[in-house]
Predict the structure.
Amino acid sequence: MSQTITDPVRLEDTRRIPPPDPDLEPLKVNVYERMSKAAAQLMPLFPYVHAGAIVPCGNVLIGGPEQSYGHFFHWNTVSEVVVVYGSNRSLLASGQIMATQNLHGVNSFLRDEKDPEAYAVIVVTQHQGESGDQREALVARCKKCKAELIRHEYDATPPGLPGYDGARHGGSDDLVHQFATTLGSAEFADLRNTEAVRVCQACGHENVPFSRAEWGWARQVDQTRAVNAACNSLREAANATEKEGQR
Ligand SMILES: [Zn+2]
């Protein structure tokens, strides 16, 4: 029995995705593989953070007797979506998807951060702005009276928009840009731990220092600086060798 094909899909009529930008090679990353070796939370999984880019950032939160993630608030002018790639004894379930509000609380999302069996692998994806300036802030509150200890607001305008700050996030000689959120977060952690900020102006409570190791922001900022310096020094060495060869 022969089948009659009716109404075949005409490719001309379907919506087409434009071919990829030749400067932005399509890349594939396995979040489990990449995050097993990552230096920091909120690590961009791909090197694309330009205006309009979709930026998925990996996190691995692990419980343990020495762990202390603390708590802070993140405010972002662009939208973020959270996808949980696997968790145990966490407030977020495996496979859970959640759109955050512009101002949202951040902690380990583990039921008990001292529990060595607790973990969560989470990807937070933000959609970079396509016009205007992008701004973010990290806020710390007093543990006792909830008064605001510090609000560190910073510019996060992505490369490709007029407001992009190359001096802050990386110049044209730099192979890798600083990720604005990580740079701002590292600054926040330093400010949050100063005596003047830690001791609450409202109630006098001496808040314990914010633990930086679990988040790894300063390490990522330093590593980004170091790899750019290394890359530039190799270029200089190559230029010097080339000049010597021409003599
Ligand atoms: Zn207080």
Summary: The chain is about 25% helix and 25% strand.
